[in-house]
Design the sequence.
């Protein structure tokens, strides 16, 4: 049982990110003081929306310049905090050197933040933003899981430096977090494990998250000939902020929490947008056949290897989200709302333009 004092400041690492921005807003709206650790506190394109959220709330925000690859970089930001949210980690698939660009910031960054928690006596709880990627790599892994669905007991054993290194980075980072947590008794560790996150970005220009790239691909015409029926889990970024909030402030919270609202697939995500946006945007209307993807996929996108297509296309995705519902009282908004609000936010920001 860990009770966090809401009058104490709370640290959010990577506070300007797509996911973290909604968490920061949630904390500010609750009237809290947020210590926002970011790489570029002077860059208003990156943090202006957080200043705006603070101005409209009862809370306060204080920025700190921090980098995952620098030891002690989060110490000033952590002083006085009982609760630390560690969300910072690169979420990109476009990398040349996965060891340097993904694994090191994810794993060493987690070690830096959590080792600092050992040195700052005010810290009582650390919530890390892990991922379902620390549980599985391909949709086929969910089919092969005991009981045919992902649970919090499962760890990813199929990602590697050569295949889905982002998933490897999240697996190694979360393992490192539990290793450090298990060696001390000052603070407890909670892992939030979201599946694919969509929903409106508070500031779509402040992030390079793959979530935004996926929406751009859906609405920008890349899938106008059709979308792969590729199994994925989906959760709304606003619900994920609430999940983080509950994970931080529920004294009984414990262990990992799969944060997945809908077991769905890419085609269904695209077709959900058709009624409202189909007339003006080149959205996918039908499934691309697997044989066609096997033939042309590897030539069009370096992620679309034959192995990836075999293990994901026409394969359902299933996860058990009962732990977070039962223990943290989470409920999730409908997928239609998530898809429409995500898309509208990109239109409003003029990132997606009607044809
Ligand atoms: N979006 C999803 O679908 C999804 C699903 C599951 C889990 N997650 C996890 O959620 C977290 C946030 O992801 P996101 O989607 O919000 O992506 P994002 O918008 O790209 O946020 C990533 C954050 O990490 C920071 N960061 C990256 N490298 C850093 C470094 N070396 N030092 C300090 N900060 C660094 C980024 O800072 P800069 O802005 O300065 O680059 C940014 O604040 C990540 O841990 C990700 O693995 C995301």
Sequence:
């Amino acid at each position: 049982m860990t009770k966090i004092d809401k009058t104490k400041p709370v640290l959010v690492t990577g506070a300007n990110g797509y996911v973290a921005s909604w968490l920061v807003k949630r904390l500010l709206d609750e009237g809290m003081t947020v210590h926002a650790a970011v790489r570029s506190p002077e860059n208003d394109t990156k943090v202006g929306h957080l200043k705006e959220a603070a101005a409209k709330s009862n809370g306060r925000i204080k920025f700190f310049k921090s980098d995952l690859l620098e030891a002690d970089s989060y110490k000033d930001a952590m002083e006085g905090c009982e609760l630390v949210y560690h969300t910072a980690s690169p979420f990109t698939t476009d990398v040349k050197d996965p060891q340097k660009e993904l694994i090191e910031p994810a794993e060493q960054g987690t070690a830096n933040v959590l080792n600092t928690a050992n040195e700052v006596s005010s810290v009582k709880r650390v919530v890390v933003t892990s991922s379902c990627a620390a549980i599985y790599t391909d949709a086929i892994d969910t089919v092969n899981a005991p009981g045919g669905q992902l649970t919090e007991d499962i760890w990813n054993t199929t990602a590697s430096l050569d295949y889905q290194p982002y998933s490897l980075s999240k697996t190694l980072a979360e393992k490192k977090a539990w290793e450090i947590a298990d060696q001390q008794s000052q603070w407890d560790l909670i892992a939030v494990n979201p599946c694919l996150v969509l929903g409106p970005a508070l500031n779509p220009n402040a992030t390079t998250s793959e979530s935004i790239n996926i929406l751009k691909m859906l609405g920008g015409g890349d899938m106008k000939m059709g979308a792969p029926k590729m199994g994925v889990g989906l959760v709304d970024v606003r619900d994920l902020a609430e999940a983080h909030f509950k994970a931080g402030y529920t004294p009984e919270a414990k262990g990992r929490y799969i944060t997945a609202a809908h077991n769905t697939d890419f085609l269904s995500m695209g077709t959900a947008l058709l009624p409202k946006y189909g007339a003006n945007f080149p959205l996918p209307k039908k499934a691309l056949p697997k044989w066609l993807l096997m033939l042309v996929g590897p030539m069009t996108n370096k992620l679309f290897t034959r192995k990836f297509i075999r293990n994901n296309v026409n394969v359902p995705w299933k996860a058990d989200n009962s732990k977070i519902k039962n223990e943290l009282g989470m409920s999730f908004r409908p997928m239609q709302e998530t898809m429409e609000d995500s898309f509208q936010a990109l239109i409003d920001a003029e990132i997606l333009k009607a044809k």
Q: What stands out?
A: The pocket of NAP is lined by residues 14, 16-20, 39-40, 46, 67-69, 87-91, 105, 129, 131, 170, 194, 196-197, 207-209, 211 (CB under 6 Å). The two ends are 54 Å apart (CA to CA). The beta strands are 10-13, 33-38, 60-65, 83-86, 125-129, 188-194, 196-198, 231-236, 255-259, 262-265.
